[in-house]
Amino acid sequence: MSDETIANLLNEERTFPPSDAFRAQANVSDPDIYEQGRDLEKFWGDYAEGFEWFRKWDTVLEWDPPFAKWFQGGQLNITVNCIDRHLNGPRRNKAAFIWEGEPGDQRVLTFADLHREVCQAANALKSLGVKKGDRVTIYLGMVPELPIAMLACARIGAAHSVIFGGFSPDAIAERVQDSESNLVITADGGWRKGGVVPLKANTDEALRSCPTVKNVIVVQRVGSAANCKMKDGRDHWWQDLVRDQPRTCPPEPMDSEDLLYILYTSGTTGKPKGIAHTTAGYLMGTARTFEWVFDAKEDDVYWCTADIGWVTGHSYIVYGPLANGATGVMYEGAPDHPRRDRFWDIVEKYRVSLFYTAPTAIRTFMRWGDSFPNGRDLSSLRLLGSVGEPINPEAWMWYHQVIGKERCPIVDTWWQTETGAIMIAPLPGLTVAKPGSATRPLPGVDADVVDQDGNSVPLGSGGFLVLRQPWPSMLRTIYGDPQRYRDVYWSRFENLYFAGDGCKRDTDGDYWLLGRVDDVMLVSGHNISTMEVESALVDHPAVAEAAVVGKAHEIKGQGVAAFVTLRSGHALSHDMREELREHVARKIGAIARPDEVYFSAELPKTRSGKIMRRLLRDIADGRALGDTTTLADPNVVKKLRDQYESTEG
Ligand code: WT7
């Protein structure tokens, strides 16, 4: 964010208390709940009693910082709690998923359907030799087979590693290798803006460097449009493999701390981190926050617009809603296909009542204009959510007025891939909302804001956001690298979880998130590491050196700005700029494509040779340059700035 945006954020004084009508029906309306959250073991132990266990736990929490064990000694299967548990009653034939494909096709899966399809897919995995403890990579678009595949893994005790369908072959290969998956589930292709995403072709390319993979299951989604080739002995059509499998599959008893999934997220180095989530605590964290923050009721129709390839989809399309027996809408495609009112069309059509999206989407809708939402009946909505990055007050107000018609509480939810579940957010029946603030840590969440030395700062001041106590849905480690887990999250401050976010608390104690303090950019709310983009750039033969920084972007929150030094013999040109942008998109995925590429004969460095990204950020955002005294050659930055300004306009 720019300094100006931050200043505006912090001067926000509008407040929005819950309406009496909302408060009267809210799932949580007793403020004493925050007090109850202080006794972690009782708070979570009582809640866990409401789930199905093969064996109850011995201890609620064993905390040996930074390693936590929740519900140790307990055994359960998350799919029993998300599916089977709902089959003996009125939820049996209730919709679990209402799915809409981008071309307009539809499927409704009741809990009974979901049970059958998950069991059949689980049996199919078993037939290919997948067993408890294995890892399975899933690279699919937003089709029903995606949650089915995840749950099928969980049914038999294999950990899933879902890779966002927008990622490139290199990104897939890196993640498959790191997780040592032996099976990949993909599709012939996916629909996006009327075109085909070549999922199978990307998988084939990735698997050239993934010797652990013995089998690939391919969902048929786009048919002849993908023109995909099957490899004998390795590739199997999902539909053929699954069709005749038995319709039941006994759930594997899992220890509470058995690995449920790995999800890769960008870190401050080039190598993505495999965030490891385990079974029982993750279930408790996602289930409870879903019920409380979204105020979910039996009759709600809930729609989270995220892609399941990100943690938001894992926790709040799949596990949290299913654990509550909720009906969730799932949409495959783009918000502007075929028209810019597609989302509002879906809200109207399925009478969506709880709607969860990202600030980048909200800003896009704002720019498209009010006529699109105004042309649809949005009266079914009763609560709106936001996630992914700080929401600017203008976007909050637009969301409140144009989408929520000033009736719907807005829950701005702060959390991370690492936290597994929402940590800081309003309880919509209790909390006074403020545009741009995620408000309070949820009951049971012990957050704080600290200075450089780890000391808590007084209300009204800013610093680093930390968490002081473990929580059930916390990451347990970085897959295969416990030392990195310690280093990244628990070394900055002793025994405090370092979230990597700047944060200010106002005098009421409300939290205002200020963006990342590390070298991670938030592009459309997704973590992209500057190092990752830099490595992709220097991989290009023409590039000698590259430095990448986030730059304020009106729609995406942050865009990617690249400063590049070319090897001698390569000409600076528009074509080269485009080539480098495409190169990054190919190496990582379109989301990481630099918005801007600046060529420079030199990059600003300290005398010890460290690139000063802080200065590049100032240049990219057009700010006054900060302290330049440690630069080896102050002229470099002056030249860069002049050049930047001459190309900008
Ligand atoms: C980072 C985590 C959690 C799902 C999506 C992103 C930023 C997320 C908010 C919010 C301010 C937010 C933080 C965080 N972030 N939600 N409501 N207000 N910032 O997951 O890719 O792991 O990114 O997203 O900077 O650290 P992620």
Please outline what is shown here.
Helices cover 31% and strands 23% of the residues.
Structure in words:
This protein is of the alpha/beta class and 649 residues long. The protein has an 8-stranded mixed beta sheet with strand order 12-11-8-6-7-14-15-23, sandwiched between helices. Strands 5-4-17-16-18-19-20 form a 7-stranded mixed beta sheet, with helices on both faces. A 4-stranded antiparallel beta sheet has the order 21-22-24-25. Strand 4 and strand 5 form a beta hairpin. The chain starts with a helix and ends with a helix.
Give the strand order of the largest sheet, numbering strands 1, 2, ... along the chain. 12-11-8-6-7-14-15-23
Q: Class by helix and strand content?
A: alpha/beta
Please estimate the helix content.
25-40%
Backbone shape? globular
- State the distance separating the first and last CA atoms: 21 Å
- Averaging pLDDT over every residue, what do you get? 94
Which spans have pLDDT < 50 for at least 5 consecutive residues? none
From the structure provided, what is the oligomeric state, counting identical versus distinct chains? single chain
List how many beta strands DSSP finds.
Answer: 30
Which small molecules are bound?
5'-O-[(S)-butoxy(hydroxy)phosphoryl]adenosine
Q: Beta-sheet strand percentage?
A: 15-25%
Main sheet summary: 8 strands, mixed
Radius of gyration: 24 Å
Count every helix, treating DSSP H or I runs of 4 or more residues as helices.
21
